[in-house]
Amino acid sequence: MAYYLVVDVLKNALDLFRLDTKREASQMTNMIEAYCTQFFGYGRWDAPVWFVGLEESGAGTPKELLSRLAAWDRRGRRELEDAPTFYPACSQDRWHGPNAPLQPTWRQLIRMLLLARDEPVGEAALLEHQKLAFGGSSGDVCLTELSPLPAPNHREWPYAGRRDLPEWVRSREQFRLTVSTGRIATMREKIAIHHPRAVVFYFWKPRQSAEAVAGGEFRPLVPEQLLGLEHNGTAYFVAGHPAGPYRDSYFTGLGRYFNQHCRKLFAVQPACFKAPSPT
Prior knowledge:
alpha/beta; 8 helices
């Protein structure tokens, strides 16, 4: 008799475990779907300057992903976050803490932006802009990505084989196919509403993604260095990624080109102050 009671208890416990596991998997699926369709990056949609990347840099570990999802959920599931407070809220204070170094990608984007404005680009100036302003809700830049999940580089996809994630997330190719159409459509909608002066894509491929957002074909402005087009009052540019084979001189040259040929596009436009969300 006791034997059968023990068996029943174990069976009930196993059923509850399976139920909890299914519930957790369902919750993760719902959260991932919401994040991938509703979160677009940092800053303001109505900023005069946008930088558009392929995907955010990050390790993509289970701990990092859960921390990011939890912070985004806790702070109100905003389409655009405030980078200087969102990263520390995700327990990722490396780029905004008192001893923060320059983030390699942001370093070059900020270099181009400040040079376009004829502002100093020493390491101290770049770092101050990164920690206090870049991607901020009260700043004048929108940082957005075609893919919302961070990855270390274009070769590694840290979500492969993750059984706790939806199947469409486990392959980078399938993931992009699943989310890219909706994200491109949202970006086009936001551009039509807010009319940014300049949109800079910092990737060469896939070119069709940049052209789908811009609504036209790019032409060379600086051979093998910069592409551009103008559409409905917005100037679009395509440049190389800072993780590519480019030195500081490449991004310095682009910043000077913007300063000489289209400085007004990148001019400062302060926002009305918006208090950051609580962490």
